[in-house]
Design a protein that fits this description.
Distance between the termini: 32 Å
Radius of gyration: 17 Å
CATH architecture: 3-Layer(aba) Sandwich
CATH superfamily: Class II aldolase/adducin N-terminal domain
Number of domains: 1
Number of helices: 7
CATH topology: L-fuculose-1-phosphate Aldolase
Structural class: alpha+beta
Strand content: 15-25%
Strand order of the largest sheet: 4-3-2-1-5-8-7-6
CATH class: Alpha Beta
Shape: globular
Number of strands: 8
Length: 216
């Protein structure tokens, strides 16, 4: 049975993502684990900005459909929940600047975190996950080496994924990712990327370790 309070919160996050140009048309999907076996997830084929709470589907951790028409990319979400017991929510969107980095620099393994203190403090690092065809188990398989250590990731030539111990932490990860990707992109157009000094990077990483694993 759909938890309509959570469904309303999912719709609110979808509308925020849409308003910030991180979702277009039927792109993206959001899920929330309401119990050990039951997961709410946005539907397939609908514009997330115009969803109703009743559109939210319900699935199990072993991919049984209990109600609705769940996202075709649910296998990726389920892999996160299997690998990260503390995960309560997964957000998958298509933030333009973040995805553009993976298109322009296909050999790049992660966004250049050494340029920005906030990337290190808020998420540690942001890897770029190898491309996989959408809606396949391969998407989840490619995530596995980065779980549970990384909570924010670019999906090469496709989108991005963030997860958290709450719906809002998962959303914050997506917002943090796109904001950082835009700053880095602007820096490139203004003359190029520069790194913080090595001593400062060490200090920031030490601060991050003390802050804990959550996305800030």
């Amino acid at each position: 049975m759909t938890d309509f309070k959570v469904a309303h919160e999912i719709l609110e996050i979808c509308q925020r993502l849409h308003s910030r140009n991180m979702l277009a048309a039927a792109d993206g999907n959001i899920s929330y684990r309401v119990s050990d076996q039951q997961i709410l997830i946005t539907p397939t084929g609908l514009n997330k900005a115009f969803m109703k709470p009743s559109d939210v589907a319900v699935i199990t951790l072993d991919n049984q459909i209990l109600s609705g028409k769940p996202s075709s990319e649910r296998l990726m979400h389920l892999e996160v929940y299997r690998q990260c017991p503390q995960a309560k929510s997964v957000v998958h969107a298509h933030p333009p600047a973040a995805v553009a980095w993976s298109v322009a620099y296909p050999d790049l393994k992660e966004l250049p975190s050494e340029c920005l203190s906030e990337v290190i403090l808020a998420v540690g690092r942001i890897p770029i996950v190898q491309y996989a065809r959408p809606s396949t188990q391969e998407m989840g398989d490619h995530l596995r080496p980065f779980l549970p250590d990384c909570r924010v990731m670019v999906l090469a030539r496709h989108g991005a994924l963030s997860w958290g111990e709450s719906l809002h932490e998962a959303y914050n990860g997506m917002e943090r990712l796109e904001h950082s990707a835009q700053i880095l992109m602007y820096a490139c157009t203004l003359g190029g990327l520069t790194s913080l000094p090595a001593q400062e990077l060490d200090a920031l990483r030490s601060m991050r370790a003390k802050l804990g694993a959550k996305t800030l």
